[in-house]
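Q: Can someone sanity-check these two? First one:
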Amino acid sequence: MGGPSSEREVSLNSGRAVAEALRSVGYDVAEIDLKGRELELPDGIEAVFVALHGEFGEDGQIQEILRTRGIPYTGSGPEASRRSFDKLLSKKTFVEKGIPTPKYEILRKGQGRSLPLPVVVKPIRQGSSIGVHIVSDEADWPAALEEALTHDGEVLVEAFIAGRELTVGVVGGEVLPVLEIKAPDGFYNYTAKYTKGLTQYIVPADISVECAAECRRLALLTFQALDCKDMGRVDFRLAPGGDLFVLELNNIPGFTGTSLLPKAARAMGIEFPELCDRIIRMACVH
């Protein structure tokens, strides 16, 4: 837990929650707070629960280190992690596999936008909505682009889909109930994600049986298309006309008190300690 990314604090919260849950069901747990990119493990470690969010945790780097050392770990392998974390690689996979996703383009500094407003501007390799802006007014475009570019040399510009925000967790091969996110001002940003009580979560989402089934089908298809393992969470927009659009897959979703995967699991009768137990039992060397 921890790590060098901009999501360090969120990761520490996830790690502590997971450690407490695993201890409660009988595991001997060592909490390892990564300060940088060096991994030192105590002797006798049988498996690693990766609760690192963002760069170094979700992008395949820590997975490559653990694979090289032959230590079983939770979550997807290095290649699938890289594909999921990199929004451009994910988008290319969605298009290739026929998974519905908003229109997009990649811009570098000095390049003009071709998509009409409103758009969403996202750094290609960040999580937790860091650096993400919804731009509806042309006057706001330059500042949003400039800020997003500070995180990386290029950004993903995506057509904004008006409508409802849904998310679907996958644990092993099991698809969890659809959860709806009702964020203040309709923007599920960093503050909305990690401030308790600010955002409303409805699980199961109040949508038709057919829509829920299609949402869950697309979630599993996305999980499989990216070749993910153990766990993941697929984020959607549901347009007013009923069309679903896959935004991205989080290959190491949050495990904090406000996190979505544990909420969806609880709606299925899987309490947090059991969820963590299920995931650590799937740990392997990819």
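And here is the second, same format, sequence then tokens:
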Amino acid sequence: MMRIVSFAILAFIMFSGCSSPYKGLGDLSKMDDLQYPFPVKKIHLPNDGHTIAYAELGSGDKTIIFIHGLGSYAPAWSRNFEELGKHYHCIVIDLPGYGKSTKEPHSGLMSYYAGVIKEFVGELGLKRVYLAGHSMGGQISITTALIYPDIVEGLILVVPAGFERFTAGQKQWFRDVMTPKGVKFTTAEAIQNNLATNFYRVPKEVEFMITDRLRMRKAIDFDGYCYAVVQSVKGMIDEPVIAYLGDIKVPTLIFFGENDNLIPNRYLNPGRTIDIAQYGASKISNSKLVMVPKCGHFLMFEKTEVFNSEVREFLK
């Protein structure tokens, strides 16, 4: 059922049970107990009320803030954060409701997340930053650039949500099928199947995404995470950006995998990924589109060297 949510990182949201290969993992008491591959800092946002978990690496006059996708978390960028941190000031965050950030209820609107990014940048004393967003994080990055252009130096959009159109009926369908209970009680088999749909060829290094998601299902704040996922889906469809892509004025680097199984939606909008990618890129005047062969939706993890190399060239 959830498999057709084209802008989601579905591997994170579709299971509750534990299939035999993963028995004995042990449950987390709270999601803050997740093990990250880098030291985590926390900062409270007074206006928003959430405490945001983030990691920081590197230095220089160019800052990149990495924003994960639906159902995901900061370690999704682990193969990019550390490498690019050798050359730039890099920050990777958990959005409110995700990972190690606090999970008070919120609207999930793209404008809400944009406000979080704005406040986060201000609290860290930063000025203008590059936003790197994956999937839903791409739509958040676009929205931030539209609402708060004064803080955005450039965009790095990785298979961004927001380039695909949905009718009113399709949007209502998403609202109807996405429920916190549905997120919470999806089967273990579904997560493994849907993880595969995010990749052209699944790297062995993504195993932690399965085990982390299995272990967090009994965490005391897991219900808050499930709520955030549902609100985020509604937020994407309630605040589309496709009509405003022409208003983006900053340099923009756009990535799509040629073998993306999620964009466009194979059930609601069957078609070619390249058509969606080219249309969106054509509306952003100062943009470069990189189509990556033999690559799926989780591009920055599957084709790490291509992504890191193109980002470094872009930032020159």
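A (reply): Looked at the second one. The chain has one domain: 41-178+196-205+231-315. The radius of gyration is 18 Å.
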